[in-house]
Amino acid sequence: MKASERGAALILVMIALAALMPLALLLSDFTWRRQRQVNARQQDVGGQAAARGALDLAMGRIQSGRLVLRGPDQSESFELEEPEGRPVRVRVSRQTDAVLSAEGRLLTPEDAAMVDVDHLGIDDLGNQVREYRRLEVYIVEAESPARHPFGAVRLLATVIRLDTGETYCIGLRYDRGYFPTP
Amino acid sequence: MQTDRRRQAGFTLIEVIIVFAITLLIAALTYKITRSCWLLYQTQTQVTERGFSSVRALDDMAVEIARAGYGLGDAGPVFLGRLDGTRAVDAITVRSNPEGIAGVLEEDLTDPKEPVTVDGAALFAEGDEVLLVDDQRKLERARVTAVRSDRLSLRSHDTPDGSFKRPRWIARSTRVLKVREVGFYLTTDRTGVLAVARKAPGQAEQILVRYVEELSFEYQQGAHPANDPRSLLLRMTRSTGSTVRITLTLRPNPSLPPITVPPRTVFVSHEPQWTTIPFDPAGLHAIGLAGVVGQDPATGAKTVRMHTWHDSRPLF
Known about the structure:
The structure holds 2 protein chains of 2 kinds. Chain A is of the alpha+beta class. Chain A contains 2 helices and 9 strands, in the order αββββαβββββ.
């Protein structure tokens, strides 16, 4: 092939590539947009579900005694990272115990120190009724970290553990966004 | 000599016509493909935008609905209607009490002009929106019009003159709960297009998505403890989950190629926001308990604020 023919062939190839390039870019743009839409949904729903699962796990550990915090200033952190799963940072911190009276009063620590929490009474029907219940109070924080450009999902929950061992969540909220790393 | 002449002769007419025809054919094909791609691009952009907008709008609503009732205890977390208190299927008002501020009436409340003593009055501020809730879970929305040491002046939101719909709110069995109400509703934007809007306290109305065909909310109460056979023997210790079904249908943007936008439906479950603490084995004596996580302003440490109420729902 002569030099001039090689030049013509090159120009032809360049023109063909230039014509095909926008089409390829368009197709890649479709894919990218769709992928982004799916990612956003997956990030939001997956992050929330992962944080919720971490709360259930933390409650299970508190109830079973696998996670023991002895005082109000103690906390424990752990990370959940399962294969194919989402990493979740969990922090459980214990608060000052609460004492709840049968009249519905939350006793102050000073008042609580002065009462017999195990005291039993008798109601109008002759049944035994406890006068107080001691509650262990925990804050559970679970965070599924941000994956740029999607924000993190953070869960904040108040969990109580009764003196009989059962645990209950008495308040729970989700927040989304970018949070400072503790 | 003959070769030189052939070289100088150039192309024959037939050759030029054939090349011209092939060029035209290729140009026509390229044009058609490019045009189809452009149309496809615009259509796909519209499909993606409509899909993404509906997903984001549903997600915004779902997050708010999932945390409804935070800090409110057993008081109605969701109202199927507008922020002004009118019922509507295309609007939802989601309530919470993120600061966990609660009080109990110490004397009967009958007249909005008369301040009443409230246990916990100091936690409230003038202008706070509150819910009055009795032990039968009857609700009335009100506003704090004045705070004087341990007394609050309250005015109903549900009547034009501020008088209370109920003639008497009974002392000790009525709670006063600070409430944050976030509304999602259908509205018409500045250009006259039907849109879904979100309104939260202290924030301007935010348009979530435009060109809306239909928005509806359906509240599905969870299994009521009274319908559970175990409730004949024991008081159920917590609320069972209720759900909100959201259906959102969007119209195509009229300035873009026509597409079909399928309706989207999402079920949102309420999270547990309170529990019942039994004081006897049968749970005849029980106290409701709700809690929120706050922050100590001095140390920045996280703290829990709880409030309680007599859970005197009839066992049978």
